[in-house]
User: Fold 2-hydroxyhepta-2,4-diene-1,7-dioate isomerase from Streptomyces aurantiacus JA 4570.
Amino acid sequence: MRIARFSIDGNVAFGAVEGEAPPGSTEGLVLDIIKGIPFADFELSGTKVPLNKVRLLPPVLPNKIVGIGRNYAEHAAELGNEIPDTPVAFFKPSTSVTGPGDPIEYPSFSQEVHYEAELAVVIGRMCREVPRERVADVILGYTCANDVTARDVQKRENQWARAKGFDTSCPLGPWVETGIDLARAADLTLQCTVNGEQRQLGRTSDMIRPIEDLIVHISEAMTLLPGDVVLTGTPAGVGPLNVGDEVAVTIEGIGTLTNKVIKRG
Assistant:
């Protein structure tokens, strides 16, 4: 099931996305409005609205976003970094989240902002110290993410809070796909295009550490809450974004997340 969060006539709701459409298009898709929230038992209302009549919002509002750095060997190498002995975790605040079609605001304190296409894991239940064999039980589904990074700031500051945590630096969407199991999530194609030109192309099978290891590692330290998001790393091919660019992240079996870069007002 594809679960979207949306706004219509000033009201916010969740809905199940039905139908098929060409990549990047919403033509022919409809939303069956959900009674309740997707993190508990819910029903479909049977009330349907065309997807192109609503505004899609970030599919979740996470309490926290936990990113994993250098989880693809070729990406680590392209930035001159060694593969770490343990996963490198960092936070992006909830204020960094923006939705499909919403702008990425180019920060005033950076002159080198990069795209990073990533598979995002959406947590479905409160959990801590998750054993590896139970990881599937705590995942609601998966969505597309762009871990937008002020690369020059990342290089000159000893920690990544400003470089990866500025407002609108975490586009998520267009929806959460719940019908992908861990085995399939471990081998999906993901790509990034800028103004229609392919910049990144990789597979999640190239991750150094799989999703199970990441959830175990993170949940050893902290409680994960429903709606929290884990970013699993980006493949090689990262590069600059400029004001006016349109950047799209497409993941096999999930969909396409598109955002335009604007100057921060």
In short: The CA atoms of residues 93 and 165 lie 6 Å apart. The first strand starts at residue 2 and ends at 8. The chain has a mean pLDDT of 96. The longest helix spans residues 211-221.
